[in-house]
Structure formats: structure tokens, C-alpha cells
Amino acid sequence: MKIVAMIPARIGSERLKYKNLRLLAGKPVISYSVNAAKEAKIFDNIVINSDEQIFKEIADKNNVEFYLRPKYLGSSTTQSDEVVFDFLKHHVCDLLVWVNPIAPLQTGAEINKAINFLIKNKFDTVITCKKERFHTFFEDKPLNFNLNEKFAKTQDLRPTSSLVYSLMMWKSKTFLKQYTSQGYGMLSGNLGLFEVDPKSTIKLNYEEDLQLCEAILNISHDQSKQYDKILEKYLNKNEK
């Protein structure tokens, strides 16, 4: 099975300007997804897919491939289905994995695990998600609890799943078949949801998201150890 990583890098961004080129802990945001894809040690090819030539410099520097997509596929109105279809027309593979640079804290180990989740369960499409046990409404109606009974404990609620798009992957034949016949393919075939670590759900949409990731990456290990000692002292006292 040939597995290809596609890292999308549109130059335009309405909410966080030039976010893929912004520095995060001293490195361009896009470099985190490139490094994570390498660390996954499962890809035959890693390709930065962009509408702007500047990303070729980053691809060359990181020893990965570069694909310059048509300019019309770089607008804010471009649908993801169109980007995937265009890429698959120019890159032959069995499994295509969209490694999203807006989730810079996702690890290579998690990418590897998600891909094997698709293979093991014979899914055609897998998208990452977060599962939460909160009292959830949709259009002012409760989804996972009853208004006419005692307020449920959160741990007793059925979890709801929200897509986070840090990874999206498709068996190429299934995607192409549905896109060709119906004009869309993002949720083609047998769909699976893969729950990721909370850090992988942090997406760079706004300036505050960039600051949050910066803080997480720069957190002091010494400070963490200090709090570990406080917890250790408490447990030693109360477990005797």
C-alpha cells in the first residue's frame, strides 16, 4: 500500500494572516506538520500542497516534495473536496492523508496510530475528532440528556463527537469514485472517527490560538516538577 501525506498550505487566511508562515517557538507553523509526518515513519511520500511558490523553499529545506496547485484552488471559497481531487489527479497512491498544519501539536506517533486504525478497521475514510461529555444542545434541543429528569452527571452522558480535521484520510479509489460520480468525496465510503489527544484539537484559527500553542511548547519542565512534588506529598500523606 502506497501512503502519501499531503500538507495543505494556502497562502491566504482571513482570520490569522499567513498562519502557515508564522513563527511558533521560533519555527514556521508548517514545519511542525512536516516533522510530525516524518516522525510517523509510515509515508512513502510527504508533499506540501500550496498555491504559492514560497512554500517550495520550505519543502526543499525539509527534504519533502512540493506541489503547486492551480491558483483558483487557493481562494477562501475553495472546497476541500476540490483540493483533494486535484491532488489525486497528479499523485498516484492507495491512501492519501491530509496532515493539517493548523494542528501543530499533533505528533507523529498519533498520525501513525490513526492510519493503522483505518487499515485495521477497513475504513475508506477516517477523520480525527474529539469526544466530550457535556450537556449538548442542537437547535435548542438536548442531544444527549433529558430535560425532564435530574441533571445528569457529565461522566454518565453519552459522548458527542466533533470533527477537528487535524488528520483526514481516504482510500484513493473510493474518494475518486464518489467525487467523479457525485461531485464530492470527503466522507466517502465507510467512515471512521479517530479520537485524538486534546493537544491535537488545538487549531490555529486566531492569534490567541497561536499564543496558546506557544505557551504549551515553552512550558517550564521545572515548574511541572514542582507541582509533581506537591501531588506526591499529598498522595504519600493520604494513602498511608
Please tell me about this protein's structure:
The structure is a single chain. With 240 residues, the protein is α/β, with parallel strands linked by helices. The chain has one domain: Spore Coat Polysaccharide Biosynthesis Protein SpsA, Chain A. Helices cover 35% and strands 23% of the residues. The chain contains seven helices and eleven strands. It has a seven-stranded mixed beta sheet. Strands 2-3 form a two-stranded antiparallel ribbon. A hairpin with a 2-residue loop joins β8 and β9. It is globular and about 60 Å long. The mean pLDDT is 90.
Summarize the structure.
By secondary structure, this protein is of the alpha/beta class.
Draw up the topology in text.
Layout: E1 3-9, E2 23-24, E3 27-28, H1 29-40, E4 45-50, H2 54-61, E5 65-68, H3 80-90, E6 95-99, H4 108-121, E7 125-132, E8 137-138, E9 141-142, E10 160-171, H5 172-182, E11 191-195, H6 207-217, H7 221-238
Parallel strand pairs: 1-4, 1-6, 4-5, 7-11
Antiparallel strand pairs: 2-3, 6-10, 7-10, 8-9
Helix pairs in contact: 1-4
Using brief descriptors, characterize the structure shown.
240 residues, 11 strands, 7 helices, alpha/beta, two-stranded antiparallel sheet, Spore Coat Polysaccharide Biosynthesis Protein SpsA, Chain A, 7-stranded mixed β-sheet, globular
